[in-house]
């Protein structure tokens, strides 16, 4: 198959390319050329997808599918679809579960209500920017989906991952746990040990996406995991097993963490308090509990936690080294909170 990938040299994109090449597909990349040394033997067309004249370099060619890994703004999506709708048989858009409106309930499926914005609101929050607007990430990705579905619904495959992790993940939201547990000793563990969590290894997502392309699959799919029974305790214990760590987990409940001004998600990765509003007034307790039955039925599968942890640590040591983490709790604060827990046992 001939596959065009928009992006293709960073995190998910690079694994899509590797998986496509492994399966003997002909890959073309369209990007700005800022990381072109990653795949020197793969055809690359350089350009800015925000500029219609750059996208027009793709006209007159034909691909079985395009995989769009980096569409953030509706106006950008409109340009891409305008140029490619007659050049491809399938348009795959990597979206996000952040498009959903209500995360207060668990087990939401692809039919759950999604976010939206008016044209005037989009213009206000973007103000002519061609860069991602993270404060309205979910709304803008949802509008990108709508652009695609309105233009070429019969060719559209929309994939909604949650937290994507593994080698080359520079967000550090999973890598923090791998690095911290590998260091050993007492490790502050957040919230209810039996609370469900979800993530997907980038390589599992890439493999499944190429599988969906090969089958010319269309529709909308939640693509996160690992399954419906992964808990925070199982996750941390599996990382510990995979790394042969001597870590000892010290559990702190939601009340303790909130009272001590611990920030959910970024300061304490994968922790979202159960059934209570966060600082912005939203209850996000179901965000890591999406229904993925449809994707699993379509072939999505997951490697063991231990394997993801081992490979992530290997990449981190080789590539990131002593680089400062972008997520996670400072060791000094963690030590202080553990001491406080031990001096005042939580009932």
What topology does this entry show?
Elements: E1 2-6, H1 11-22, E2 26-31, E3 43-46, H2 52-55, E4 65-68, H3 74-84, E5 91-94, H4 119-126, H5 137-151, E6 156-161, E7 164-165, H6 175-183, E8 186-190, E9 200-201, H7 202-214, E10 219-223, H8 232-243, E11 248-252, H9 254-259, H10 293-297, H11 305-320, H12 331-343
Parallel strand pairs: 1-2, 1-4, 2-3, 4-5, 5-6, 6-10, 7-9, 8-11
Written account of the structure:
This protein has 347 residues and is α/β, with parallel strands linked by helices. The protein contains twelve helices and eleven strands. The strands form three sheets. It has a seven-stranded parallel beta sheet with strand order 3-2-1-4-5-6-10, sandwiched between helices. Strands 7-9 form a two-stranded parallel ribbon. The protein starts with a strand and ends with a helix.
Question: What key attributes describe this structure?
Answer:
Rossmann fold, seven-stranded parallel sheet, two-stranded parallel ribbon, 36% helix
Strand content: 5-15%
Q: What is the average per-residue confidence, as pLDDT, rounded to a whole number?
A: 93
N→C terminal distance: 60 Å
* Main beta-sheet annotation: 7 strands, parallel
The CATH superfamily of the domain at 1-161 appears as NAD(P)-binding Rossmann-like Domain
- Structural class based on helices, strands and sheet pairing: alpha/beta
The number of strands is 11
Please give the count of helices. Answer: 12
Name given to the CATH architecture of the domain at 1-161: 3-Layer(aba) Sandwich
The geometry reads as globular
CATH C-level of the domain at 1-161: Alpha Beta
Widest sheet, order of strands? 3-2-1-4-5-6-10
Q: Give the helix level as a range of percent.
A: 25-40%
Q: Do you know the CATH topology of the domain at 1-161?
A: Rossmann fold
Instruction: Point out poorly predicted stretches.
Output: none
SSE string, helices as H and strands as E: EHEEHEHEHHEEHEEHEHEHHHH
Cα Rg: 21 Å
């Amino acid at each position: 198959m001939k596959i065009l990938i928009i992006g293709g040299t960073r995190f998910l994109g690079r694994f899509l390319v590797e998986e496509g090449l492994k399966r003997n597909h002909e890959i073309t990349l369209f990007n700005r050329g800022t990381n072109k040394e990653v795949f020197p033997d793969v055809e690359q067309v350089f350009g800015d997808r925000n500029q219609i004249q750059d996208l027009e370099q793709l006209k007159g060619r034909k691909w079985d599918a395009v995989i769009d890994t980096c569409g953030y703004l509706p106006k950008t999506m409109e340009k891409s679809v305008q140029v490619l709708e007659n050049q491809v048989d399938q348009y795959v858009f990597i979206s996000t579960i952040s498009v959903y409106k209500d995360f207060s309930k668990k087990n939401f499926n692809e039919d759950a209500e999604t976010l939206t914005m008016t044209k005037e609101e989009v213009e206000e929050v973007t103000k002519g920017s061609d860069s991602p607007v993270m404060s309205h990430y979910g709304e803008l990705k949802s509008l990108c989906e709508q652009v695609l579905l309105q233009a070429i619904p019969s060719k559209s495959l929309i994939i909604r991952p949650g937290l994507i992790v593994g080698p080359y993940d520079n967000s550090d939201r999973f890598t923090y746990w791998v690095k911290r547990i590998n260091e050993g000793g007492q490790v502050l563990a957040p919230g209810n040990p039996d609370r469900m969590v979800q993530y997907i290894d980038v390589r599992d997502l890439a493999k499944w996406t190429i599988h969906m392309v090969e089958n010319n699959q269309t529709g909308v799919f939640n693509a996160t995991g690992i399954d419906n029974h992964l808990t925070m305790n199982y996750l941390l214990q599996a990382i510990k097993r995979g790394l042969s760590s001597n870590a000892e987990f010290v559990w702190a409940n939601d009340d303790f963490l909130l009272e001590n001004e611990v920030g959910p998600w970024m300061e304490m990765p994968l922790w979202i308090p159960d059934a209570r509003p966060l600082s912005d007034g939203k209850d996000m307790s179901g965000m890591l509990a999406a229904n993925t039955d449809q994707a699993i039925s379509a072939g999505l599968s997951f490697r063991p936690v231990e394997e993801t942890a081992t490979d992530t640590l290997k990449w981190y040591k080789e590539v990131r080294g002593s680089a400062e983490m972008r997520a996670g709790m400072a060791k000094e604060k963690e030590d202080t909170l553990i001491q406080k827990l031990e001096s005042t046992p939580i009932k």
